[in-house]
Design goal:
Order of helices and strands: EHEEEHEHEHEEHHHEHEHHHHHH
Strand content: 5-15%
Helix content: 40-55%
Number of helices: 14
CATH topology of the largest domain: 2-enoyl-CoA Hydratase, Chain A, domain 1
Structural class: alpha/beta
CATH class of the largest domain: Alpha Beta
Largest sheet: 10 strands, mixed
Distance between the termini: 56 Å
Number of domains: 2
CATH architecture of the largest domain: Alpha-Beta Complex
Radius of gyration: 27 Å
CATH superfamily of the largest domain: 2-enoyl-CoA Hydratase, Chain A, domain 1
């Protein structure tokens, strides 16, 4: 069967070009797609949507399988917000994400950029859709492309022949003519998928008039709101707490083991997100994540690399311990001075200063 696509052709061709340029030999640490802020779980749905992006070395692709997995890992009492900036993607795998979304009540969507085609199919199944005013929403539709290269090859003196068991077997093979029967079958498949898409939208958003929104066109937020494709136009990237509307759900108590596991996962997410946001050098941030460094350790190692300590050939002279400094004293300056005095690395010195002057470390860590 030919690929069924729910994404603008120009964006699909761009995605194929990006995929072809990915260097698979380089180790890649994917940016975490889930974060928890003030009791709300945010799941990033970004770029081109495919069945699974786990093996794709790029943050410009999001997998339906990973979306479903992220949703199922979040406690049912926790509100979920899908943060969407996607022009759509493939049909293959979309049910994985759709089923996970339909199985949750406390889930909404926030659009900042694009929410078109396959991405809108997902968003439409959530309880509420908000978008920033310049976001583009819509693109409802399905298509598939098949190339008939038979005439070109015939002109070049090449004739492709195929032994097959039925009129539609082998349809789309390069060089074989695309018959009316093949096109009728493909058109039927596209229309059936489109009907499922549109029926889902209408079922979840009753005020939408399908005749007005299923041409494949997309709209800026104001027009999308008039067409009932979205509910609210918002100004920022994150929803204000009071604007997050979620359905009430019966509280289910978690066991102590589940709570411990959830706390550990939340702490790890916070560590990873803080490291990725702290360092402009993405390669270094990924290295820190991979090595399991804390924010403090990552800062110390970073300073080691930026300004290596010049070790003296003369044995250091022991010095009397300094008086307890004020917490506002520069933590790294203290660590650098100790490194120079003892001929040790800055990270080792920082660890010693952190133990000796915890207040100074805490202020440094906060800053």
């Amino acid at each position: 069967m030919q690929d069924i696509l729910l994404i603008a052709p120009s964006r699909w061709l761009q995605a194929l070009d990006e995929f072809a340029k990915i260097d698979k030999s380089v180790k890649f640490v994917r940016r975490p797609m889930t974060s928890v802020i003030d009791g709300v779980a945010y799941i990033d749905v970004q770029g081109t949507l495919v069945k699974s992006a786990a093996e794709i070395n790029s943050d410009r692709f999001t997998g339906y399988a990973e979306i479903a997995q992220a949703i199922r890992r979040i406690d049912t009492n926790t509100p979920i917000v899908l943060r969407v900036n996607s022009g759509g993607g493939t049909l293959d795998g979309i049910d994985l994400a759709l089923n996970a979304i339909k199985g949750r009540d406390k889930i909404t969507t926030q659009v900042d950029g694009l929410c078109c085609s396959a991405a809108y199919w997902l968003a439409s199944q959530t309880k509420r859709i908000s978008a920033t005013r310049l976001s583009e929403v819509g693109g409802l539709g399905v298509y598939s492309v098949i190339y008939d290269t038979s005439r070109m090859l015939n002109d070049a003196g090449i004739e492709v022949k195929m032994a097959k068991t039925g009129a539609l077997k082998g349809a789309g093979y390069p060089g074989m003519p695309v018959t009316d029967e093949i096109m009728d079958d493909l058109q039927s498949t596209v229309e059936n998928v489109g009907k499922m898409f549109f029926d889902d939208v209408k079922s979840a958003r009753e005020k939408v008039e399908l005749a007005k929104v299923t041409s494949g066109k997309s709209w800026l937020a104001a027009e999308a709101k008039e067409l009932n494709l979205i509910d609210v136009i918002e100004g920022g990237q994150r929803m204000d707490d009071e604007k997050v509307e979620v359905a009430e759900e019966e509280t289910v108590e978690s066991t102590d083991d589940e709570k411990t596991e959830q706390d550990s996962v939340a702490q790890e997410r916070e560590r990873v997100m803080e490291l990725l946001s702290l360092f402009a050098d993405r390669d270094y941030a990924q290295e820190a994540v991979k090595n399991g460094w804390s924010v403090f350790e990552a800062k110390a190692h970073y300073f080691d690399r930026q300004k290596p300590v010049a070790h003296s050939a003369v044995s250091p002279v022991a010095t009397a311990p300094a008086a307890e400094p004020e917490a506002s004293q520069n933590f790294i300056a203290m660590a650098r001075r100790l490194a120079e005095e003892k001929g040790i690395s800055l990270s080792e010195a920082a660890a010693q200063i952190a133990k000796q002057y915890p207040d100074a470390y805490q202020e440094y860590a906060r800053g």
